[in-house]
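Quick one, tokens below. Sequence please?
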């Protein structure tokens, strides 16, 4: 049976993937009380990394689309942390977005808006969150965007 959050995602045309496994020696999420800390999720489409550098070979719109993909992976990780019941999600607390960008690129917030806007559209007020959007000279695998998140869940 699909819960209300996954039903809303389906209305938006989004199906959550299985939670991506970690790429190194870390865990993808840690639950402490009613808080889930999700490790950085990189942009992937059709099993391949979304690569590029904002300000060089990628537009703000393409970067925002990559950030949206990161947010979808974040929700997949939260669902895994909740034993498959995404309706245990209470709210998004904070996102930290890392944007692979040139030294003179200054639109990191517009890029990370791709994740923020998606979460608000999917979750309503529960998707509103504190946030940081920062530049990175490079990111793992050459990805355009990586986003980590903190979420509150029902125990």
């Amino acid at each position: 049976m699909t819960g209300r959050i996954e039903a809303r995602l389906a209305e938006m045309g989004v199906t959550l993937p299985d939670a991506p496994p970690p790429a190194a020696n870390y865990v993808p999420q840690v639950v402490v009380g009613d808080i889930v800390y999700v490790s950085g999720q990189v942009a992937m489409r059709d099993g391949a990394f979304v690569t590029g550098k904002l300000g060089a070979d990628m537009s703000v719109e393409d970067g925002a689309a990559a950030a949206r993909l990161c947010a979808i992976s974040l929700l997949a990780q939260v669902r895994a942390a909740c034993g498959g019941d995404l309706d245990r999600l209470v709210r998004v607390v904070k996102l930290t977005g890392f944007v692979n960008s040139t030294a003179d690129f200054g639109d990191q917030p517009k890029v990370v808006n791709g994740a923020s806007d998606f979460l608000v559209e999917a979750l309503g007020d529960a998707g509103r969150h504190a946030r940081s959007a920062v530049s990175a000279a490079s990111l793992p695998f050459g990805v355009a965007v990586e986003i980590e998140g903190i979420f509150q869940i029902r125990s």
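The domain at 4-11+28-153 is CATH 3.30.1330.40 (60s Ribosomal Protein L30; Chain: A;). The chain has three helices and seven strands.
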